[in-house]
Specification:
25% helix, elongated, two-stranded antiparallel sheet, 4-stranded antiparallel sheet
Length: 151
């Protein structure tokens, strides 16, 4: 490999390349050896005329378990007792899929309750407004008394 035509790959702020290739190059990085979080690949390529090209590619590694937190968000102001539910699932080393570990329980939103109650109230109003008992019930004492007392 000539120094005049090479591709050097650096990880994060490393001073030594993790790999050097002659162009064209196919790069493979084993992310299981990296800690979870933000990283950066820095690729330096030099041409035959000693010009240097530089490309920085930020990326995030998430091989560990995914974490879901209910009850606390970034920037929240809290006081007293703080109840937080933490769920962690998955990860590169976990092969079995367990859906119950993935689900994050969350309360039913208020707007859904308001909508449900509104629909039920409308249905009851509509049902009582247009309710007419059948012929067999019109001759019962309860219905006759109400019909007579109505103006």
């Amino acid at each position: 490999m000539s120094d005049a035509e090479r591709v050097a790959v650096y990880l994060d702020d490393g001073t030594e390349p993790i790999a050097e290739y002659s162009p064209p190059a196919r790069i493979s990085v084993d992310t299981t050896q990296l800690s979870d979080g933000e990283h950066e690949l820095r690729i330096e390529a030099s041409g035959s005329d000693d010009t240097l090209g530089l490309q920085r590619i930020p990326f995030e590694v998430r091989n560990g378990p995914a974490i879901s937190i209910e009850g606390l968000r970034a920037g929240d102001v809290v006081e007293g007792d703080l109840d937080v539910v933490v769920h962690a699932w998955g990860g590169a080393s976990q092969g079995d899929w367990e859906p119950e570990r993935v689900e994050s329980p969350a309360p039913i939103p208020t707007w859904a309750w308001v909508l449900l109650i509104s629909i039920i109230a409308w249905a009851l109003y509509y049902g009582t407004l247009y309710w007419q008992p059948g012929e067999s019930f019109q001759k019962t004492p309860t219905y006759e008394n109400e019909a007579v007392s109505a103006p």
